[in-house]
Amino acid sequence: MSGTQPLSFFESVEKSFDKAAQFTHWNPGVLEQIKACNAVYRMRFPVKMDDGRIEVIEAYRVQHSHHKLPCKGGIRFAAEVNQDEVMALASLMTYKCAIVNVPFGGGKGGIKVNPKKYSSFELEKITRRYTAELVKKNFIGPGIDVPAPDYGTGEKEMAWILDTYASIHAGEVDAMACVTGKPVSQGGVRGRKEATGLGVFFGIREVCHIPELMEKVGLTPGVEGKRVVVQGLGNVGYHSAYFFSKAGAKIIGLAEYEGSIYNEDGLDIDAVVEHRKATGSILNFPGAKNFAKNIDALEMDCDILIPAALEQVITGENAPRVKARIIGEAANGPLTPEADEIFIQKGTLVIPDMYLNAGGVTVSYFEWLKNLSHVRYGRMEKRFTENLNTHILTQMEELTGKQVTQKEKTLIMHGPDEIDLVHSGLEETMITATQEVMQVWRDNPNIPDMRTAAYVVAINKVATSYAELGIFP
Ligand SMILES: NC(=O)C1=CN([C@@H]2O[C@H](COP(=O)(O)OP(=O)(O)OC[C@H]3O[C@@H](n4cnc5c(N)ncnc54)[C@H](O)[C@@H]3O)[C@@H](O)[C@H]2O)C=CC1
Ligand SMILES: O=C(O)CCC(=O)C(=O)O
């Protein structure tokens, strides 16, 4: 794309990739292979609506990389879905999985519908038909391609996908692993729902403890007391805001479709959600100042800005007016490459999507492993462990000469619960990923920003995987 025409989302991802590729030593052919989308399935299918009308639905599934299988990535329901967008999102999945060492290739799906305009029955028919199309073309399966929730979808849609897939593949013992983000009763894992937001929190918290970065942005270390603005109060935005509040940060600004609200003393996130449920809007929340546009929140004076809605919301046009010192990309692709350049000049720290929002896929990986291993995580059955654990407890007390506390006793007798395992696995993943990206950035002072460092980590890992497959010398 040339001249003044803005880059598409996929072109933006390619541009960031090329910027980073110059800091690697890989042959151009290898880089070309990593960048390309391996397979794009564009489908159209008819669905009969509640009023008898036939609507032709446009949908996609893109498998960006087969360097590891299955492919993995969410399914988006939005009126704006298009092929370029799904290709960009699938590419980001490849790089994201590589950074957090989740052994999948990148994939993504999208159905071009505004879910708010359809009844639940219509959405179920659309989701089931989409799944059948994926089965027909071999674009879904525990070892082929495993969808998950994304913008506009959640547990309900994942349950429909599982049910449709399992009905077609009757008797396939691993069928449950064909999709993640399912309800716990349908083989889901505890902790997936909040995983992306919690991962965003862990990632930003880790960065906030790196003295050289905090010095660069002129903030004190730690998240406590930080003034945070969040755009988008869906799955990722809500949970990010929730975990920041819990850690003592102040959510001073929020944006949803209908506008933005601001309160320097802090907003109670759950009360805002309740207010929106009751009134249909976040506006007019008691004590908060209203702003007519959702983009107004992006320009509020704050320490940390978390865009958690859609892509390309911060561009070369509004980036100069963004006041945040840290931008944590919870959404996929919220900044354009022009915005990136402006933030490098301004000294604003951008924590990139492709590792910051990897909490979702990390916990999806745990869910997939749980489904394939057919065991449950966490607390063992009492009948297997009681005698042994009582013995350990007695030995501990004898050896230390002290009585164990009630908390220690519960842990020894029952082991950690599934949610503890998932949260600690996610925390460890986000800390390790932050350190790996930081190491590359520190090792090469010419790398201009954290996004480029993250891409370098991802490119090196995917290229190494191809090289070890024997495909490239
Ligand atoms: N759900 C997941 O596990 C993951 C999601 N993501 C990304 O996070 C972003 C959000 O996804 P979810 O929270 O799952 O979607 P969601 O559908 O649960 O919530 C998105 C929210 O953003 C709001 N919104 C849309 N445009 C807006 C605007 N211009 N200003 C303010 N609010 C706006 C919507 O009304 C909705 O409430 C997407 O970019 C998605 O790709 C990334 C990793 C995993
Ligand atoms: O949980 C997953 O498998 C994918 C989540 C996702 O779509 C994303 O990280 O953008």
TrEMBL record:
The record marks 150 as: Important for catalysis. Transmembrane segments: none annotated. GO terms for biological process: L-glutamate catabolic process. The keyword Oxidoreductase applies. Gene3D superfamilies: Leucine Dehydrogenase, chain A, domain 1, NAD(P)-binding Rossmann-like Domain. Residues 189-470 form the Glutamate/phenylalanine/leucine/valine/L-tryptophan dehydrogenase C-terminal domain. NAD(+) binds at residues 196, 235. Belongs to the Glu/Leu/Phe/Val dehydrogenases family. This is Glutamate dehydrogenase. The lineage of its organism: Bacteria, Pseudomonadati, Bacteroidota, Chitinophagia, Chitinophagales.
